[in-house]
Amino acid sequence: MRIGNKILVFIAGFCLPAVVLVSYCLGYWFDHRVELLRQDNVQHELTNVQQQFHIDLDRLSFLTNIYASPLSRVDGDLLESIESSWRESAISANLHWFILQGGQLHSVLANTSSIALPTQQEIARAVLAADKPQLAGAYLAGNVGLVVTAVAVAPEEYVLLVRQLSAQDLLEYAQVPLVTQVQMSSSNLAKAKDYVGFVPIPSLLNNTPLYLQVQFSTEPFQEVKLDLDWVSVGIILLGVLIVALGYIWLRAGLLKPFKSMMKQLALVDPTASVYRPVSGEGNAELEVLASRVNSLLARIYQQKERGKTTLESIAEAVILTDIDAKVIYMNPKAESLLDVASCYAVGQSLASLLKAGEQLNQAVFHCMRLGETTPQVAKIKLLTATPRIIERSISNVLNHDKEITGTVVVLRDITQEELLKRQLQKRANFDGITGLLNRQAFEEQLPQFASQAKRIAVCYLDLEQFKLINDSCGHTAGDRMLVLVARAIQSCLGPQTLLARLGGDEFGLVICDSTALSVAQQLKQIIAQVSLQVLHDKNCNYKVGLSIGVAFGRAPYINALELLKDADIACIAAKAKGTNQIHFYDDKDKELTYQRNAPKWAVRIAQAIEENELLLYYQPIRGLGASSKRQRMEILLRIQEPCGRILAPAQFIAAAERFKLMPEIDKEVIRKAFLWLSLNPQLWPDHCISINLSGNSLGAEGMVEYIAQQQHIFDIPSQCVCFEITETTAIQNRQRGMEMLRQLRKLGFSFALDDFGSGFASYGYLRELPVDYVKIDGCFVKNLAVNAKDYAIVKSIQDVCRVMGIETVAEFVENQEIIDRLQVIGINYAQGYAIGRPQPLASYCQQFDMQAAQRA
Q1: Residue 597 has what DSSP assignment?
Q2: Alpha-carbon torsion, ordered 591, 592, 595, 597, to 10 deg
């Protein structure tokens, strides 16, 4: 419905009925207020009539009381005198005096009475039946109303005053303009349309109620009632005229400009290349509306142009379809990809355009049927002149009511990407040199490969002397040798095997469902084949060997990755045996167990350093000669588990050395030892502690500065500290070690050469190394008392050191007999279980004080 018709309907259907309804309601309300006023006046008049009647009754009762006594006792002359004066009084009209004696009424003060004898008899019976000293009430005799008052003057003797009420007497009880008639009635029933009210009055007869029936006049209230007249009709017509003028004004000021604006809007085409602005002249609000519409049209045009430019410039092919999968738009990239012009493609089926079969149309219909909100992506093969792999994406197009009106199909040529992806996947999973699986692919396939076997053998193969080829001939020659080795290994493998290059010169091999003997035979064959491979380069021939570690696993307890770790540990053991060796992993081998658990111990050591769980122990070193003035001890290291168990160094030192953690451990030991010395200054004059420095710490960057810094922080004398380095460490790190020893010696620290005689050192090193003590290896000391060769070796070391001014310390001193022999030789110090076992460093001071007290 148009807005003009709606305004007409509003005026005719709402405004005019509203005017009539309001007029009617106002008249009804006025009549209701008049009726309430009338009822209020009626009630007031009824109350007034009742009050006037009771006043009249009280007056009669008062008059009866006054005359009762005189009338009952006077004689004839006096009665005539009273009667004469009563007749002359103004109140004697309609009043009758009676004396009730012997059940009969006798009229007094008047010779005649207008009251009928039956009435008098009924009054007498009523007074006697009431048997009260004083009585007042009304009595209805036919249509005549009487008011009777009685006063007892003697037993069964009463003086009665009876007033006969005329119509005028009753009317005097009310206001004449409002009340038209008052009469006495024995019933209070009246018709609903009669304006009659009833007032209950005292009745002489108790069983007969009496009422004063009051008739009211309706004329005073009818005059003020609202009646429809010409004035009312004129007012209503005036209201209708005002509404009509308002409609004409609205039509001219609103409807006509709005109609003009609607015609302009009907001509607007959002798909046009240009648009005409809409005008809203004639109304300020319509001008604002027109401005908003123009702004919206400009935005639509801008968005349309932006979308068109975007679709034409993007690198993907975009095709719009309707709800029947018919093409309605193609961007230039789609035209180029499909080699068809847009004008020929519009209206065609999407499947026929792409020559992709009905599955593409079905995918479009499936997407629309399910109402998918996310793009449905898949790959299809485009059968053009040159076959291409296309990634297609289907998205639903919704209108403003969220209804699907079509789809957007985006096509992207991913042919080159797929080729590159396959190449990258091949590079990611295969070694580029040998063509074997790489480590990542090997570890990914290993669990699944092992799950299909009842028993597997995981082998770790490491080439020997391969570094020589890389260093001598270059990496290109090394790559050629790796290819030869890979082919040689593959030539010896059966179907139930998995081979990979794990990195560098290491290979991984898995053999399924074979016995240990057959695995060993097959691995020996591999070693033989690899040994036959010869690399010719620069007139030189190169060969390589193999070290192989093997770990077995049985279903259902096969953990392939853990077996690979075990095989790696076994391979290390095989390399220690020599070239072309095979070693089978045995979990009962402590050395292999230490190697396997080395990574866990490395983590545990780092945690112990961080959480301050490293404990310092000491083992005393006793002087054997009178020249030994200082009490010496070697600082040992332990780790305490959270449960309180103390771990021996053999369980973690090897792991720390393998993972280069010894510098951090040595720093923590130095810090704790210096702290202990700083807390016990009473030991400075006659004590010296020996702290071991590992090979990784010897010559490490910043180690000298750290030791100097800790000495400065704790302010301890350097003569209380001796650093121990092993013979092997000193030889391997000769240049760096010499420089570090010289710098520390400048700070005042002393040094000891530990495990002397166990390596390849000669006495010439003693001349070069700035050491103060030589600790003779325990392998020469523990059999000193029974082995003449050991005795001679120890004695020769002692003689050389004495000449060079170096003091000697014998390790592994386990009994008194060895001590006696050492004293004969002239050894300066002894260390071992015969001297003292390792104990916590924290308990040393307490034991030292107890020993001093015992000596005192």
Answers
A1: T
A2: -110
Residue ranges in 102-141 assigned as alpha helix (H): 117-130
Q: In whole angstroms, what is the distance from residue 836 CA to residue 817 CA?
A: 15
Strand partners, 634: 619, 690
| More confident site: 508 or 699 | 508
Is the separation of the CB atoms in 350 and 319 below 8 Å? yes
Q: How distant is the alpha carbon of residue 470 from its chain centre? A: 58
Whether residue 413 contacts residue 388, with contact meaning beta carbons closer than 8 Å, is answered with: yes
252 contact partners, CB below 8 Å, separation of at least 6: none
Spatial distance between the Cα atoms of 456 and 566, rounded to a whole number of angstroms:
13
Q: Is 482 exposed, middle or buried (0-12, 13-18, 19+ CB in 10 A)?
A: buried
Eight-state DSSP code of residue 813: -
What are the Cα distances from residue 791, in Å, to 773, 787, 814, 826? 19, 6, 15, 12
Q: Coil, strand or helix: which one is 262?
A: helix
Lowest mean per-residue pLDDT among 70-84, 165-179, 428-442, 452-466: 70-84
Residues composing the chain: 856
Angle formed by the axes of helices 662-679 and 598-610, nearest 10°:
30
Lowest mean pLDDT: which of 15-24, 449-458, 773-782?
15-24
Measure the CA–CA gap between 338 and 345, rounded to whole angstroms.
10
SS3 514: coil
Looking at the predicted structure, is the pLDDT value of residue 634 above 90?
yes
> How sure is the predictor about 621, in pLDDT bands with cuts at 50, 70 and 90?
very high
> Is the CB of residue 456 less than 8 Å from the CB of residue 450?
yes
d(CA 378, CA 684): 82
Phi/psi of residue 94, each to 5°? 60, 15
Say what the pTM is: 0.45
Q: What angle do CA 545, 547, 552 make, to 5 degrees?
A: 145
CA distance readout (Å), 587 to 285, 552, 595, 603: 93, 11, 11, 21
Residue scoring higher pLDDT (218 or 704): 704
Q: Is 625 helix (H, G, I), strand (E, B) or coil?
A: coil
User: In a 3-state reduction of DSSP, which class is residue 114?
Assistant: coil
Q: Are strands 535-537 and 540-542 parallel, antiparallel or unpaired?
A: antiparallel
- How far, in Å, CA of 213 to CA of 181, rounded? 8
Beta strands in 383-475 (DSSP E): 388-398, 404-413, 455-464
C-alpha torsion angle, residues 255, 260, 262, 268 (rounded to 10): -170
**Cα torsion 801, 802, 805, 809: sign:** positive
Residue 658: what residue type?
A: R
